[in-house]
Structures are given as structure tokens and as C-alpha cells.
Design brief:
Length: 541
């Protein structure tokens, strides 16, 4: 199997070390230090368990040693597919302690994605929950073990015939290896792109811990912070922005939410004195609608982060009045660059932009289709490089050729406009713009107008191929409970907002639900495929 590396040119690496971004920290050392400093403090709360830092560190070291005793060797890859359970942290930090490389999968992934990740990473092991949300992950893992010769070890949190139980995997921590090179790969994250199977993203100890440290500082985390993980813990947003790992870096407490419904999470926020949590936009809209009806008693909540996709201004302005906390917009990618609105930014900056970069050494270029820079305020393609933005995917020569430009610039696929302050306004993905008879239309601009209608909970606009116009627009509308505005009413509403006529959707469809990705973002790809299938069916008639 190809070696897993992530290497910055030496002149860049030297600069990042000299400026204090890379400090030689590693994940095994991080947990040992927190356990030494905060041994009796709660680290992780969930599933009826309250795990202190000392307990997490001891459990992780014993588990890591047990993995090595079973025949795994430092440098081996191990796929982790677990839900929001305390065992996830024991497993991952156990892998770090043993010098093994986690490969993260999401609970929603099934055979196609898991088989791809196992094969592409060359994983020798899997650590899974037996069942998540009713799905038998143990049966899937064992069937894959029979099919993939490289997959030798399946370890289950819970019980399943034919698999080792995680609780029984333990060894002597004295046999653990020395800490790894801080510039070595700590884990393989998965790409969050909307097309194709996930790509593997190698992240190093130094680069990722830098993001945890700075994200925790920007988000105001300290030892008293209590972070609610409502989204899947293996997702990059939930893990690092500042997420669960950033909370542990700050010495705070991670509270695990088994489901992300507003009712369950409002209760957890109240009972566990949660101070910060993070959502993707569709969930944030659901929470806001629930809060408008129930007015939840959640006085400890200080910050609601929204990221993973653009949070439209009409929705962003509802957060403070309905939830009584500060909104923090987060725009980033598992490949690296992360932007935050700061907690002390003016309200219009918080609601109208998606933040500015973590690092003074995050370099940003906004260019037109020809690759030429565009002035501030004008939309263009986002290119970036910096101390935590990767220089290449693992074993993906084709994707690397498409996504990385000379000089190490990563082409994110996002369309943004940069303000003079450095804040970015996300206009959408490059593929989300609609070219209607030569007029370039931002799907998210149309969506912002649509959700301003009082009876619209969410809206997604995608393109439809058209023989005359090239592309036309189709809006999928999710109405609020008990309401369903007519398409004609929505068109009248949009005309009343004094916008160009070509921006009013050519087609409007009311839906009972919107398909989402594994982390809960709206799946534009699924909607486009629906429209494509319909068009093909019409051709065959």
C-alpha cells in the first residue's frame, strides 16, 4: 500500500514552526498532559457514563496496548465507525497511543463507502459500534472481513458473534511505543465533497493540533466549557471547530447527544449546563422553529455555531432572539482552511458573513474562471494554502491534479467574495451556480429570498438542463408545519422583493422532506439526480 504522508515544502514548514503554529505537539502527549492537569474533571459525558480525564487516558492506553497485543503494528490503519458514544474517544486515543492511524467513517456510511475506505486506506482493522440507529454495523463489518483479505481485525463496542468485544481488548501500557513524529500523519479524515466516493485526507499531529488550539481560543473555550456534540463525532466540523477535540484541548467537557432533535438537545443543554454546540443549517432551522414555539429554558448556552454549508442571513438573524446566544458562523473544509466569525464581531458581520481565517498565515486567493484575481467584493473561486491546509489527498493522483495548483494552492470548489476586512461571504459551490441564458445566478441568493417567506422552513435551488436556456432553476421548498405556500404565491413574494426577474425560479416544487448527506447537510446531488432521472424518463416516453 502507498505510504501515508503529508509534507509541506521545508521553507513553509520552517516558517510555520518559527511563528509558533507548529509546536511539536502530538495526540498521545496531549491526552497525557490533560489527564495530569485535570485528572478528576469530566472529559466525556454520554450514554449514562461520566468519564474523567484520568479514566479516558488510562482506558485509551490500555486499549491501545491491547490492539498491539492482537498483532497490529504502529503505522497500521484502522477504520473507526462509531456514533456519539464515549467509546469513540477511548478507541481513537487508544489508536493514537499505539501509533496506529484512525480512518474515520460516518455512522450513515454503508457497504459501498466502507468497502471503498477500507480498500483505499489498506486498513487492517475496524472498530465499530455493534448497532447505530437500528442498523447492524457488526454484521456488515464481519461480512467485509470475509471479503477483504487485508481486513484482519473487527472489534465491536457491544457484542457480536465472531468479533472481539472492545471491553476485552486491553494490554500493558508499558508496551506502547514512543510518541510519533509531530509531522507524521495522525489520522485519515474523509472529504466532504458532494460528488463521488470520499477521498482520504491525511492530517498531521502538528497541523491539526494547531487548529484545535486556535479554534478553542477563537471560540472562547476553557476548562469550564461544555460542548454538546449533536452532529456525528467523526465529522471534521464536530471534531475540530473547535469541536470535541478542541474542547479536550481546552480541558473542557464533551457532552454527547445521541440524536440532534431540538427536544432532546434542549433537554441536554439544560441538564448538562452546555455552553456551546454546533449544527448544520437544516438542523439549525429546525431548532429555531422549535424554539419559536417552545421558548426553551437554556440559559447556559452561550454560542451556537453553524457551519458545513452557508447559513443564510434571514435565518442567521433569528438565532439571538430565539435562542438567546451568540451565533458563530463557521466556514471550512476537512482539507484545511477554517473561517470563523469572532464572538465580538458586529451583529451584521456575524449574520452576513461566514467569517475570516484562523491563521495570519492562511493565504487566500479569489480568482475568476481564467485564474486572475478579482477585487474585494466580487465573487470568484476560492484558492488557499496555509499551515493546516493539505498539499494532497492520499493515493488520489487524479483528484490531486484537479484540486491542487502550482505552489501548493488548494482549489476548494467554493465561490466566495472577500470583504476588505478579510471576512468571506460564501456564494455557493462552483457547481451550484445556474447559468440561465448567460446570466450567472447564485442558488444561495435565491434560497435566501425564499426562506424569508414566513411559511418556508427551508429551500434548495438547483439547475435543470434546458435546450433553450442552457440551464433553468428549480426550487425545492420545505414548508413549515401545517403550511404549504403555493408556487404562485412564492413568485409574487419574490417579485415583491425587487429582484431581477431571471432570479425567480423557473420551477417550484413543494416537498415533505429534503434529502441530506451523512452529516445532515442538504444533498443537492440527490436533487439533481432526481431531476435528471425525470428528464431521462420523459425522453423514453
Amino acid at each position: 500500500m502507498p505510504e501515508i504522508t503529508q509534507i509541506w515544502p521545508e521553507d513553509f514548514a520552517a516558517r510555520y514552526r518559527a511563528r509558533g503554529h507548529w509546536r511539536g505537539e502530538t495526540f498521545p502527549a496531549l491526552l497525557r498532559a490533560r489527564a495530569a492537569a485535570h485528572g478528576t474533571r469530566e472529559a466525556v459525558v454520554g450514554n449514562g457514563r461520566r468519564m474523567t480525564y484520568a479514566e479516558l487516558a488510562a482506558g485509551a492506553q490500555a486499549f491501545g496496548a491491547g490492539l498491539l497485543a492482537r498483532g497490529l503494528v504502529p503505522g497500521d490503519r484502522v477504520l473507526v465507525q462509531m456514533g456519539n458514544c464515549p467509546e469513540f474517544f477511548t478507541a481513537v486515543f487508544g489508536l493514537f497511543a499505539a501509533g496506529l492511524i484512525p480512518v474515520y467513517a460516518l455512522p450513515a456510511h454503508r457497504r459501498t463507502e466502507i468497502a471503498h475506505l477500507l480498500a483505499r486506506s489498506g486498513a487492517r482493522g475496524m472498530i465499530i459500534e455493534a448497532r447505530i440507529a437500528g442498523f447492524d454495523h457488526a454484521a456488515l463489518a464481519l461480512s467485509l472481513k470475509d471479503e477483504l483479505p487485508a481486513l484482519e481485525h473487527v472489534i465491536v463496542a457491544g457484542s457480536a458473534g465472531g468479533a472481539a468485544e472492545m471491553a476485552a481488548v486491553a494490554g500493558d501500557p508499558a508496551g506502547l511505543p514512543a510518541d510519533p513524529d509531530p509531522q507524521s500523519v495522525a489520522f485519515l479524515q474523509i472529504s466532504g465533497g458532494s460528488t463521488g466516493l470520499p477521498k482520504l485526507i491525511p492530517r498531521t499531529h502538528d497541523d491539526y493540533i494547531y487548529t484545535l488550539r486556535e479554534s478553542a481560543r477563537i471560540s472562547g473555550l476553557d476548562g469550564d466549557s461544555r460542548y454538546l456534540a449533536a452532529l456525528p463525532v467523526a465529522h471534521n466540523f464536530t471534531m475540530s471547530s473547535p469541536g470535541t477535540f478542541g474542547t479536550l484541548y481546552a480541558g473542557g467537557t464533551v457532552v454527547l447527544g445521541p440524536v440532534a432533535t431540538p427536544e432532546a438537545c434542549f433537554r441536554l443543554i439544560r441538564e448538562e449546563a452546555v455552553t456551546i454546540t454546533a449544527l448544520v443549517p437544516p438542523l439549525a432551522l429546525t431548532w429555531l422553529d422549535a424554539a419559536a414555539e417552545t421558548r426553551p429554558d437554556i440559559p447556559t448556552l452561550q454560542v451556537l455555531q453553524v457551519g458545513g454549508a452557508k447559513f443564510l442571513p434571514e435565518a442567521a438573524r433569528r438565532v439571538r432572539p430565539l435562542l438567546g446566544c451568540t451565533l458563530q458562523q463557521v466556514f471550512g473544509m476537512a482539507e484545511g482552511l477554517v473561517n470563523y466569525t469572532r464572538l465580538d464581531d458586529p451583529e451584521e458581520v456575524i449574520t452576513e458573513t461566514q467569517g475570516r481565517p484562523i491563521s495570519p498565515d492562511d493565504e487566500i486567493r479569489v480568482v475568476d474562471d481564467a485564474g486572475d484575481p478579482v477585487p474585494d467584493g466580487m465573487a470568484g473561486h476560492l484558492l488557499t494554502r496555509g499551515p493546516y491546509t493539505i498539499r494532497g489527498y492520499h493515493d488520489e493522483p487524479g483528484a490531486n491534479a484537479r484540486s491542487f495548483e502550482p505552489g501548493g494552492w488548494y482549489r476548494s470548489g467554493d465561490i466566495v467574495a472577500r470583504q476588505g476586512s478579510g471576512h468571506l461571504v460564501v456564494m455557493g459551490r462552483a457547481g451550484d451556480h445556474i447559468n440561465r441564458a448567460g446570466e450567472k445566478i447564485s442558488a444561495e441568493e435565491i434560497e435566501d429570498h425564499l426562506i424569508a417567506h414566513p411559511d418556508v422552513q427551508d429551500a434548495v435551488v438547483v439547475s435543470i438542463p434546458d435546450a433553450v436556456l442552457g440551464e433553468r432553476s428549480c426550487a425545492f421548498i420545505l414548508g413549515r408545519a401545517g403550511t404549504a405556500p403555493k408556487p404562485a404565491e412564492l413568485r409574487r413574494f419574490m417579485r415583491g422583493r425587487d429582484i431581477a426577474a431571471f432570479k425567480i425560479p423557473d420551477e417550484i416544487r413543494m416537498v415533505a422532506a429534503l434529502d441530506v448527506t451523512a452529516v445532515g447537510k442538504i444533498s443537492r446531488r440527490s436533487l439533481r439526480e432526481t431531476l435528471k432521472a425525470e428528464a431521462e424518463a420523459r425522453k423514453e416516453q
